[in-house]
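thread from #wetlab-drylab

HS: before we spend reagent money on co-crystallization trials with flavin-adenine dinucleotide, can we at least see a predicted complex? here's what I'd submit
DV: go for it
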Amino acid sequence: MLPDRCDVVIVGAGNAAMCAALAAREQGATVIVLERAPEDESGGNTRFTAGAIRFAYDGLEDLRALMPDLTEEEIARTDFGRYTEDQFFDDMARVTENRTDPDLVELLVRRSKSTLMWLRSHGFRFVPIYGRQAFKVDGRFKFWGGLTVEAWGGGPGLVEAHRKAAAKDGIPIFYGARALGLLHDDDGINGVTVRHEGKTRTLACRSVVLASGGFESNPEWRTRYLGPGWDLAKVRGTRFNTGDGLRMALDAGAAPCGNWSGCHAVGWDRNAPEFGDLAVGDGFQKHSYPWGIMLNANGERFVDEGADFRNYTYAKYGAVILRQPGQFAWQIFDRKVTHLLRDEYRIRQVTKVTANTLEELAGKLDDVNAGKAIETIRSYNAAIRTEIPFDPNVKDGRGTVGLPVPKSNWANTIDTPPFEAYAVSCGITFTFGGLRITTDAQVLDTDGQPMRGLYAAGELVGGLFYFNYPGGTGLMSGSVFGRIAGTSAGQAAKRA
Ligand SMILES: Cc1cc2nc3c(=O)[nH]c(=O)nc-3n(C[C@H](O)[C@H](O)[C@H](O)COP(=O)(O)OP(=O)(O)OC[C@H]3O[C@@H](n4cnc5c(N)ncnc54)[C@H](O)[C@@H]3O)c2cc1C
């Protein structure tokens, strides 16, 4: 039974929301979590992730502190390297073209390690991402791209760890409880309206933390803010992030902030369903394009597949695919690289063709100009600087010369059968536009004044991401700002 009042209401039950709930409870506040989804679909986009989390670490000792289960054997066979705060800052600045908010990024980076240690203190476990972020060279694994750990059990494991931590701390989660609006007067926010079990009612509180995701699952808002064509994107994750929290806050006078016309979107199986499928998780993504090429319906390449490590390009290439005729592309590989393809290429629900000649392959690429496809592959093969050795662990500089669309790294000839091709479309992950917050995660109104009792975290915070995004930062941002929002909301509620 949903109570009439509590100190802090948390809207959402993804990673940001649940971090906020734990932190508010630590302040001694009574906390209620409202989750729009039914229990079997709960956990938002967080549940669809692989659980990869980007954080700054100075070397092995930091990793040992976070993952005391690391064995001596794992340590001996792995070069974990370091990912310093400076590198994290540089990555955020570079991929956002220097637009990321300096105050927010400061918190994100400097609190990344301590926030993971805080989660660990609540019983969360982390493991190295051997499968996806490290290749074996001369018998040793080497991590690359600043992304080294994932939550134990991936996204589903992370959501389960949150559920357990909340239960341990006496935080109730109400499923099928959709927040509809914020109650407020001249003294600030004092409650929410919520629809639960077919009834609309009010829930009084002293603080609200909005952590209900972006508007990626709302085709009308996507078209309105991201632009024409975005109604045609597939949604990678939950169907419940339709912008409710953003609308509620804007209606109450909150200031919009950040890249409202931007989003995170990737190459995603062309025949994937409209929304994410929890049984497949992130398996519809196809992220090994740096080892091959991508062709559009005209049989032409249209993007530098090897511009950077996939961590730094995958989130913006979905939009590039959406702009192609028919909103699709084929990724092409030959036998020399197929052993490098990520595990998502080996799932049952995949749109794949194989062939023993390039002519046969081109004929099997649905909706593609086959003659032009063969021509493109031949001229690509001829343009590669084959004198530079191929090395997937570093940006190897093995590029092309003289092509209208260059490939900067990892260019390998496509000449060794069997050939494999995978059809992808655009899959949207989450939207970048959000609310303006202070460094205490308090929401600001359109006059620039803090809105008493209103806090925000996760996808619906604006100002961090523009144009692009370094892989693994969504969970880190949700954790850092969820914790800050919950702490602030809990403290404010206790003061009131
Ligand atoms: C397939 C996929 C793979 C990904 N992989 C990674 C990865 O490996 N690493 C990484 O860092 N990021 C990854 N991401 C991005 C990551 O999922 C998000 O950045 C992060 O989970 C956002 O957390 P959040 O808590 O803000 O939102 P969510 O986890 O989406 O939670 C939002 C919650 O709000 C609820 N909600 C919505 N409206 C209402 C309402 N009106 N009332 C009540 N509740 C409401 C939803 O049901 C949901 O529980 C991935 C995303 C997808 C889709």
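DV: The chain has a mean pLDDT of 96.
HS: ok that's useful, forwarding to the group
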